[in-house]
Amino acid sequence: MSASGGTKAIVAALAANLAIAAAKFVAFLFSGSSSMLAESVHSLADSGNQGLLLVGGKKAQREATPQHPFGYGRERYIYAFLVSIVLFSVGGMFAVYEGYEKIKDPHEIEAWYWPVGVLVFAIVAESFSFRTAIKESNPLRGDLSWKEFIRRAKAPELPVVLLEDFGALVGLVLALGGVGLALLTGNGVWDGIGTLCIGVLLILIAIVLAAETKSLLLGEAAGIDEVRKIEAAVVDGDTVTRLIHMRTLHLGPEELLVAAKIAVRHDETAAEVARAIDAAEERIRAAVPIARVIYLEPDIYSEKEAAAGADPSATPGGTGH
Predict the structure, then answer these.
(1) Contact indicator for 88, 94 with CB cutoff of 8 Å
(2) pLDDT value at 307 more than 70
(3) For residues 242 and 301, is the Cβ–Cβ distance under 8 A?
(4) The model scores a pTM over 0.70
(5) Rounded CA gap, 267 and 130, in Å?
């Protein structure tokens, strides 16, 4: 996903949510429906979330500095994590509280046509936003299932918008069900139950988002396809005879760090080794353009050392003293 990837989906979601939030709040004022209040706060929180994603994308484009030599690509991960916090606290917890209060003290819905009309409008608007996010995601998703795409995507924006829009559509159906049952039965408890269900849904989506963005913040390796391309590009069979071991790390969605130990011939001069490393770096960048930071360490391959296995104390996260 490019740095601008997902921007169209974010802007579409932002425009839809701002319009929907205003309509829902007006419907709440006229009807007194707690589902409408919860949904208006939900849409307002989603609007703020899309704003956070846009800010994160902008900040991530800053140039590297001596203090941050690898740049600011991870800003996008930080702001995506903030989205999960906002969705959990502002959206989910508020809806749970409002639903509990409405169940404890129910009252009939007034001017039923307001919430019903606004919910139908909101479903249409959210469907447009969701369709845009799906259309933007499909070229990047390839043959992956939606679950795999959300779990494996290194750029957080589209997975966030997809989950938010999906949650918004399900929440609207829940709100419509709660309002409809409250109108049919004359019992406002159903409105509160619908609100409570919306809150639980938002909390679950926020937990999924937090888990995925936490993994990105900790630092994820390159995808399987990218690793294979790098492994194939490193070895030329002439100057670089073998890849001894390699580590990859995403510094941001479009920036990959590659650190590897490569085997060179024992009789090569320092100048020949340097040329071999430069050539290997060019091959890697041609195969995987996002591999922008590459460190290659030349070594002489030893069957005996390879058979002994890697030294855990030399491995990041290993048992070093």
Answers:
(1) no
(2) no
(3) yes
(4) yes
(5) 60
